[in-house]
Amino acid sequence: MLHPSCWKEKAITLICSFLLPVSMMVDVILLNVVRLITGTLLLSYASYTDIKTRRAPNNLWVIMAVVGAILLIIQYLDGGFPNIWYLVFIPIMIALMYLFFQMRLLFGGADAKALMALAILVPIQPTLFSEQLPIWKSFMPGSWIIFANATILFLLIPISLLIYNIGKRNLQFPHCLLGYVISVEKAKQKFVWPLEKIKDGKRKLMYMPKKFDVDEELAEFEKQGITEIWVTPKIPFMIPLLIGFIVSFILGDILLQLVRVLL
Question: In the predicted model, what is the mean pLDDT of residues 103-128?
């Protein structure tokens, strides 16, 4: 007859032998799926609120960061990191996104906070379906891949504006790549920046919108009897960020793939 302590050891050994493969299976199959679902849901809601109000709640990024931290702990305990040094990129990416925001390369505080939280949620390139996805593998940090994908998608906007302006026969360069012509009255009701300004009593075009009171500037146009002006839409970066996030799980690193093709 076995001593009670032996039964206890056998029970612990049996439980561990069962839980370890399960935890490893959870690590491989579910962690990246949880990352994908979490990021998609939070970025989708942020995109919705950004479109409606041009704001995104801060608690979204807290939730994303907390979920990301929990997943990192689980993955670390399971020994699931191909290279532990990739975790060094988390503070690096957070600092880089803060720097981009201060340099006005990221206009929205919510965009910067989202990318900081994504640095924790997706520190390395995620894989799905036994590493069959994404199609284009990359050595870059996951959050950088998402940011690069979103930036490339955002740069497609001038093409769509050009097509729109061709249809309207408004081909004043380079403004037809930056915006479109609408009435001053409609500009008051939309999220837009004027690409024109009244300076020294004269109407002048600007390549990029400057900091000024939009309502005051629109009122000035009306005083001058100007009914239509060039404007650029305040397109939330959150939308291409959402698409870039999903693309990073399916296609992978668009920028690195373009470099590979060109070289």
Answer: 87
